[in-house]
Amino acid sequence: MKNYYNMLFNEFGLNEQLLEAISHIGFKEATPIQIKTIPAIMQGRDLLGSAQTGTGKTAAFLLPVINNLLSTHERATSTLIIVPTRELAMQIDQHVQGFTYFTDIGSLPVYGGGDGLSWEQQKKALTSGVDIIVATPGKLISHLNMGYVKFDKLKYLILDEADRMLDMGFYDDIKKIITYLPEKRQTLMFSATMPPKIRELARQILHDPVEVSIALAKPAEGVLQAAYLVYDTQKNDMLTRLIADGNTMKSVLIFASTKKKVIEIVRALKKRNISVEGISSDLEQNEREEVLMRFKSKNTRVLVATDVLSRGIDIKEIDLIVNYDVPGDAEDYVHRVGRTARADASGVAVTFINDEDMYKFRRIEKLIGQEITKLILPVDLGHGPEWNPNATEVKRRSPGKFSKGRQSRKPSYRKKRK
């Protein structure tokens, strides 16, 4: 994504220690979301931000909040960041550690899946206070129910990926968490989409907010998008062609619709001697972290995942995204392909469309406002299904005992006509 105009981080009036950390990280020019939000947040305004993944949103809220903390630093929990997943909590905490490297500001991620030691560490931080807490709603509620959490000096509340949290059923948890916080605070809310329930939540918790919208629900400009029309039986062969060893795709992320498919794809690729691992919510937290670390460090070339990774994971230099299945929600497509072409880089996103998923893909094209090129399969793979731009949803029959579908498969249940 291109900036509206060039603006360097030292033009915001940020603390020198923070600028030194930014320089070491390698940030140079601010992105549009940062240009629009950093001044407003530094001025103490509540904010409702709408921005796609990969636009620099995390730095857009962390930098001004950390800058303000440096000028009024207290030994207490002053900032609470609520996120939908453990992966996003870990990622944001890593960003905080990078930005605060030359300061004495501390942070801690609070999420489930750990051992007793993790719980005690979280309890200690929530009791004695650590500057910045990055938490998932469910785990934070567990601590709040124990009665020892101290948020009396909280100054900043940040909700990141708010639409995702509502999709995951955290609406009531968020409302409950807010009852434990001081009414006088600065609240920042970020969401990739703005459905009515997000607007409703914003009206309840934000005070006279600044509204910022950057390229809502559009893939980053650096993503080269394409699709193949395939039958399910052709997917693995086409996938192997795309990621065969020796091509230029050194880092490949494949999204599948179910955990079962992740296992099947990994098994199929391993048989073809491709360096691959799978990740889903079935893995223990430490196992997921280890798999991600191997992928980030390029020890694993191909990672197969469910949508647990489609938002909030900052993995640089992913060359190819493959949607093995068309995502059910059009917005999820944007988040999936947003894993590549991050921070003005380039990347490729390829989607496999079978005959039943054409209607889903048409919804994606309508959302992003463009038709995506449909490529021809290699000759030896045979013909795929014909593209039908007017395709409608395939209604699956009920699997009930007396459904017509069952009767048609078992003629013996029918009476023969005389």
Write the layout of secondary structure elements.
Blueprint: H1 16-25, H2 32-42, E1 47-51, H3 57-71, E2 79-82, H4 86-99, E3 107-110, H5 116-128, E4 132-135, H6 137-146, E5 156-159, H7 162-167, H8 171-178, E6 186-191, H9 196-205, E7 210-214, E8 223-229, H10 235-243, E9 252-255, H11 259-271, E10 276-279, H12 285-296, E11 302-305, E12 320-323, H13 330-337, E13 347-353, H14 358-368, E14 373-375, H15 404-409
Parallel strand pairs: 1-6, 1-7, 2-4, 2-5, 3-4, 5-6, 8-13, 8-14, 9-11, 9-12, 10-11, 12-13
Helix pairs in contact: 2-3, 3-4, 6-8, 13-14
Topology order in helix (H) and strand (E) letters:
HHEHEHEHEHEHHEHEEHEHEHEEHEHEH
Oligomer: single chain
Q: Number of helical segments?
A: 15
Q: How many strands?
A: 14
Question: Class of the largest domain in CATH?
Answer: Alpha Beta
The strands making up the biggest β-sheet line up spatially as 3-4-2-5-6-1-7
Low confidence ranges: 397-418
Give the % helix.
25-40%
Radius of gyration: 24 Å
Count of folded domains: 2
